[in-house]
Amino acid sequence: MTITHVSDTARWVAVYRAMESERPDAHFRDLFARRLAGAEGEEIVRKMPRGRAMAWAMIIRTVAFDELLLGAIAHGGVTQVVNLAAGLDARPWRLALPPDLRWVDVDFADVLAYKASTIGDAPPHCVYETAAADLADAAARTALFTRLGAEGRLTLVITEGLLIYLAAADVRALGTALAAVRGFAYWLSDLASPLLLRWMAKSWGRAVAQGNAPFKFAPEESTEFFRPLGWTLKEVRWGQDESRRLKREMRGSWLWRILGRLYSAERREGFRRMSGFILLERAGSPA
């Protein structure tokens, strides 16, 4: 197996960012993606069922996150970004961020060290920091969030590609811990539906499960899952809509649209909402 830990999935996704970056009509340019992915990332994609064909899903996620993030910074007053399970994300280097924005990447120490050694001396576009932490350790997580919230900066938290690997109870604990920090005003994440989880289980499920990274989180209540945790929905973008907008649709999507006419409106809406990119706002936030 090429995936042995959930952190290996960062190399997998980096290959997709490299693929998009090398297109003449690319929606973004990640100059570090190919190096960050390395031979290991290429091997993961090669061995995954329909590995390269499914790049579109990660590409539209990247673009949607970029746009929601930049919008929150420009119009929401965000002065700090905390990227949980940051993996090999290179946004501090590739996005036009305010130079006084504080960006904190949080991940395992070895992941952060690998990224730092690969990117080298290239200067980020903002104030960049790292924090090594195991987010499964509740005490360490609370201490980290308390420290990052101590300065009172208006903060956006990112959990890109993280929640799907957590149990619902762990997502509840994380969401509650984030909401307890007054300055943590926004939470940007992706969200899978039960329908998507079943589909992914058939295609990639065995590979990620054998690599100790099974897919888990896909709440029946969709975005409403987060309301009892202290978060309200500010904006949502559904993956199917984004794929059409960005012209990065799944291969054969035209056929699915034709076949979709045979389904009920409720079933078609379920397909439309298989995946989403959500910007949550903390209830009672200073934002």
Structural write-up:
By secondary structure, the protein is α/β, with parallel strands linked by helices. It has one domain: 3-Layer(aba) Sandwich (Rossmann fold). 45% of the residues lie in helices and 16% in strands. It has eleven helices and seven strands. A seven-stranded mixed sheet has the order 3-2-1-4-5-7-6, with helices on both faces. Helix 4 (91-94) links the parallel strand 1 and strand 2. Helix 1 (9-21) packs across helix 2 and helix 1 packs across helix 3 (55-76). The longest helix has 22 residues, at 55-76. The protein is globular. The N and C termini lie far apart (45 Å). The mean pLDDT is 91.
The name of the CATH architecture is 3-Layer(aba) Sandwich
Q: What is the strand content?
A: 15-25%
Number of strands: 7
First and last CA, distance? 45 Å
Residue windows where pLDDT falls under 50 for at least 5 positions: none
**Major β-sheet strand ordering:** 3-2-1-4-5-7-6
- Which fold name is given in CATH as the topology? Rossmann fold
What share of the residues lie within helices? Answer: 40-55%
